[in-house]
Amino acid sequence: MRLSTPAAGFDVDLDTVDLFDPWLYAGGDPHPIWAVMRRRAPVHRQELADGRHFWSVTRYHDSSEVLRDHQRFTSERGTLLCTLGHGDPAGGKMVTATDPPRHTELREPLNRALSMRAVNQHRPRLQQIARQILLPLLRDEPWDLAADLAAFPMMFTGMLMGIPDLDWPALTRLTTMAIAPDDPEFQEGNSRISLVTAHHGMFEYFSEQVFQRSRREPGPDLIDHLMTLTAGGRRMTHDEVVYNCYSLLLGANVTTPHAVAGLVLGFIEHPQEYRKLKQDPTLIGSAVEEGLRWASPANHFMRYAREDVELAGVRVPAGDALAVWIGSANRDSEVFEDPYRFDVARGGKRHLAFGFGPHTCVGAPLARISLRLILAEILELVEEFQLVGEIEHLCSNFIAGVKHMPVTATLRPGAADRLAGLVEAGPVLTGGGSAGGRA
């Protein structure tokens, strides 16, 4: 999805707008549309050709209200537009598709396992992974940064979950299929078949993992943690463990690489901001938050109204779906001064990139640490990036992603020697070996 600044005076006939269409985000530009919506119709009803409909929520405060208030807006009927009108079999079983109090019971043990303190114990290995993913900078040829970054979150999430490293490539592809079933590059058959194939493949994989692990003593990784934790006075069922393994992997794989790609693209298009960061590396944390706001990789989250509600002066009937457009909320001028300016010193964590309220992403601490580590490595290694080809965007209404971004880099003094040292040391194995199931 393009990260554009709407032209002054731009207008659009909102009756012709189709925010459901994944091709809008692959080749079009929703930012001017969202700007008009925030100004004229912040809660806007769209009906699809098959009769299904949903409400688009585009302002920050309205978005926060929908995401925060589980009493009026439920997550259990589906949280993504791909489930619109079909329901969600994971409702009440998966953390992201469960309302309090069960949501709280499931989430609290995961919060402890994925807290900043818990994840910090893995910092040395995460740093090795961040360095390893940057090895292509040594090649004297264009590097498709976005395509290679797709493997980055799988390397650390796979390690934490205890997933065998030989299974990582297949699982990475399946997660992309699950969030971009309309993208021809990841499609198998049509979009519906691709979505079913991706879900079946991941559920079958984790079901096998859970079965195998149930026959041995539990280990220290996240899958075993899910299998042994007590939530609400009982252990998770087999299905609950499988659904939450899927959720953890999907959340990591589809967000982090696009945040990094968005940051690098921001540096290329706004070189003064990269210079600012090089002059003051203490801004790394602030730059990560700005990158998350800027890229807003999770493009939307969906809720259903439990009752008739009024939002921004509009009556939304009970049972209707509402899509909260994160990329729009994160450019609301009521909250962000000069929202179309990329500013690594902006600071603050008011963005909604990880959601808001009880469903704020449980993996946010892990994502923040990994993003800071890879940005620190980039800062130490790269003098500047150059874009050397066309950017290709992911065809998805859920993830605002870049799938191809060819770049070259001018390295800083000593960077080549440092990277060469990593090559001599050999690859860093971060998974659980080669035993176990295959995706």
Tell me the β content. 5-15%
Looking at the structure, what is the overall shape? globular
Number of domains: 1
Question: Taking all residues together, what is the mean pLDDT?
Answer: 91
Structure in words:
The chain is of the alpha+beta class and 439 residues long. It has a single domain (14-425), classed as Cytochrome p450 (Orthogonal Bundle). Helices cover 44% and strands 12% of the residues. The chain contains 18 helices and 14 strands. The chain has helices at 22-27, 30-40, 60-68, 102-113, 116-120, 123-133, 145-149, 152-161, 168-179, 191-213, 222-228, 238-253, 256-269, 271-279, 284-295, 326-329, 364-381, 415-425, and strands at 43-47, 53-57, 73-74, 143-144, 230-231, 234-235, 300-305, 309-311, 314-316, 321-325, 382-387, 392-393, 402-404, 406-411. A hairpin with a 5-residue loop joins strand 1 (43-47) and strand 2. The protein is globular, with a radius of gyration of 21 Å. The model is unreliable at 429-439 (pLDDT under 50).
Ordered list of secondary-structure elements with their pairings:
Elements: H1 22-27, H2 30-40, E1 43-47, E2 53-57, H3 60-68, E3 73-74, H4 102-113, H5 116-120, H6 123-133, E4 143-144, H7 145-149, H8 152-161, H9 168-179, H10 191-213, H11 222-228, E5 230-231, E6 234-235, H12 238-253, H13 256-269, H14 271-279, H15 284-295, E7 300-305, E8 309-311, E9 314-316, E10 321-325, H16 326-329, H17 364-381, E11 382-387, E12 392-393, E13 402-404, E14 406-411, H18 415-425
Parallel strand pairs: 2-10
Antiparallel strand pairs: 1-2, 3-7, 4-14, 5-6, 7-10, 8-9, 11-14, 12-13
Helix pairs in contact: 6-17, 8-12, 9-10, 10-12, 11-12, 13-14, 13-15, 15-17
